[in-house]
Write a structure and sequence with these properties.
- The chain folds into two domains: 154 residues, Alpha/beta knot (3-Layer(aba) Sandwich); 86 residues, Trp Operon Repressor, Chain A.
- Helix content is 39%, strand content 17%.
- It has ten helices and nine strands.
- It has a five-stranded parallel sheet with strand order 2-1-6-5-7, sandwiched between helices. Strands 3-4 form a two-stranded antiparallel sheet. Strands 8-9 form a two-stranded antiparallel sheet.
- Bound molecules: S-adenosylmethionine.
Length: 257
């Protein structure tokens, strides 16, 4: 049995497979660590034209995904799983997705369903009957739920043991620890006259860790001050923030090593 199984209900399974079978998630699927399965909603239509959408009652722009094929597809996946699966509808009107949601889903679910809307969305009765939560990937509107579904699947699956080389690969990253990640550099040491900060070449692990923490705090405070509100600052964090204050005062200097 795989450690995480995600079923994606969509009108465009090829677009899901084209992305999810590649790179790190593709390898994890070939190694049977995770499974991401795209199900074609259109296969469940009962009309000759295989139509999945219709005009919304009451008028309005565009078409709506009909409840019947969507429900039958959902019910078939639950039947295959042998139980009613936790179901998420990707929606611009949903609750904003965060790293905390990715961690929650990884910890509470072994298998769940992601439903991709298209056109103007889906018949509300499907949501009422089958959906446990509605998730938005941001305050903007996309043409379909495929990119949001892949975003959620990717964020959850990379937390599953065996997908990345080591848990530290994601624990040190932006958002996981509550801070944005510090800047990183690779070879060459000098590029376009821009030098890698000398401390990173020093081999002094304590000094490197201190520099990285300070840069993470600097970045978070500059770019996402909201993230620092309610963040549990350690004694060292407070010291580093004071150093940053001194450096940014008119007489202070930015530390480069
Ligand atoms: C054009 S959108 C429909 C927008 C909908 N009429 C509204 O105003 O909320 C089509 C589908 O794309 C997906 N979608 C669009 N934007 C999204 C977002 N920010 N987050 C998650 N899903 C989104 C949803 O599945 C939605 O049903």
């Amino acid at each position: 049995m795989v450690a995480m199984h995600i079923d994606i209900l969509t009108l465009f399974p090829d677009s899901i497979n084209a992305v999810m079978k590649e790179s790190i998630l593709g390898r994890a699927q070939r190694n049977d660590v995770i499974r991401i399965e795209a199900h074609q909603i259109r296969d469940y239509t009962k009309n000759k034209q295989m139509q999945v959408d219709d005009y919304p009652y009451g008028g309005g722009q565009g078409m709506l995904m009909q409840v019947q094929p969507l429900y039958d597809c959902w019910a078939d996946v639950c039947r295959q799983a042998g139980r009613r699966l936790h179901t998420i509808f990707l929606s611009a009107a949903g609750k904003r997705f965060t790293q905390a949601d990715a961690i929650r889903l990884k910890e509470t679910q072994e298998r769940f369903i992601l439903v991709c809307g298209h056109y103007e969305g889906v018949d509300e009765r499907f949501i009422e009957e089958c959906v446990d939560e509605e998730i938005s990937v941001g305050d903007f509107v996309l043409t379909g739920g495929e990119l949001p579904a892949m975003t959620v699947a990717d964020a959850v699956c990379r937390l599953v043991p065996g997908v990345l080389a080591d848990a530290s690969c994601f624990k040190d990253e932006s958002h996981y620890s509550g801070l944005l990640e510090y800047p990183q550099y690779s070879r060459p040491e000098n590029w376009h006259d821009m030098h890698v900060p000398p401390v990173l070449l020093s081999g002094n692990h304590a000094a490197i860790a201190r520099w990285q923490r300070k840069e993470a705090l600097r970045r978070t405070r500059e770019r996402r001050p909201d993230m620092l509100e309610g963040f549990q600052l350690s004694k060292l964090d407070r010291q580093l923030l004071e150093e940053l204050d001194r450096e940014s005062s008119p007489t202070g200097e930015r530390e480069t090593n």
